[in-house]
Design brief:
The protein is mainly beta and 197 residues long. The protein has three helices and 18 strands. The termini are far apart. It is found in: Secreted, Extracellular space, Extracellular matrix.
Length: 197
Amino acid sequence: AVCRHGCKYGECVGPNKCKCFPGFTGKTCNQDLNECGLKPRPCEHRCMNTHGSYKCYCLNGYMLMPDGKCASSRTCAIVNCQYGCEEVQGELQCLCPPGGLQLGPNGRTCMDIDECSSGKALCSYNRRCVNTFGSYYCKCQLGYELKYANGHYNCVDVNECVANTHKCNIHADCINTQGTFKCKCKQGYRGSGFDCS
């Protein structure tokens, strides 16, 4: 089987037919499936969509059970946690979505962890990290765009000279370079390439 446009988060099972991994959708399995929007809803109370998955949380006064259901808890209501709580060795502890959130100084609310500045994020050399609440994603560096070639997605250089997105002077030549471009004044002209006289 050959899938001409590839299967980003899935596998090719027939001519141009992808079988997506759980949590992904689309013709080439390149889109995140928002499980929180499914019927029936996967979570009893709060649902937070994540890349390729989702997480369940309970309203204040409820405890998250192993099966994802929320059980009423008077003791949890007293603690006043943002995302519900759990009992650990007889003590109540507020919960935070694991991974990208951590318990704040007050022990009740959850704060975002900036994976990009903490160095926890793993992005390839030609991608930059973008922090989001509770997570992060990797985006192509400026001057690069996401393209599908040779069976996978990659960030490739944008040729500003061909795309005509450069700001070179009309009396200058545009020279494409990796991730950017240069402007050089034509023979008989002087200047930066952006200004030529």
